Amino acid sequence: MKAQLVTLVAACLLGTVLSDGSTVAWCYHLPSCNYTTWPTKIPHHCSGARQSPVNIVTADVQADPSLTTFSFTGFNDSSALLNIKNADGKSVMVSLDDSKMSVSGGGLSGLYKSKQFHLHWGNGSSSAGSEHTVNGKRYPMELHIVHMKSTHPSMTVALDDPTGLAVLGFFIEATNDSSTPEMWKNLTSFLLKISRKGDVVDIKNQITMDGLLKGVNRTRYYRYLGSLTTPSCDEAVVWTVFKDPIKVSQDLINLFSTSVYINTTAQPLITNNFRGVQALKGRVIKSQPSSATTPYEALSLTAALLYYLL
Ligand SMILES: *[C@@H]1O[C@H](CO)[C@@H](O)[C@H](O)[C@H]1NC(C)=O
Ligand SMILES: *[C@@H]1O[C@H](CO)[C@@H](O)[C@H](O)[C@H]1NC(C)=O
Ligand SMILES: *[C@@H]1O[C@H](CO)[C@@H](O)[C@H](O)[C@H]1NC(C)=O
Ligand SMILES: *[C@@H]1O[C@H](CO)[C@@H](O)[C@H](O)[C@H]1NC(C)=O
Ligand SMILES: *[C@@H]1O[C@H](CO)[C@@H](O)[C@H](O)[C@H]1NC(C)=O
Ligand SMILES: *[C@@H]1O[C@H](CO)[C@@H](O)[C@H](O)[C@H]1NC(C)=O
Ligand SMILES: *[C@@H]1O[C@H](CO)[C@@H](O)[C@H](O)[C@H]1NC(C)=O
Ligand SMILES: [Zn+2]
Question: Which protein residue has the closest C-alpha to ligand 7 atom 14?
Answer without folding.
Answer: 217
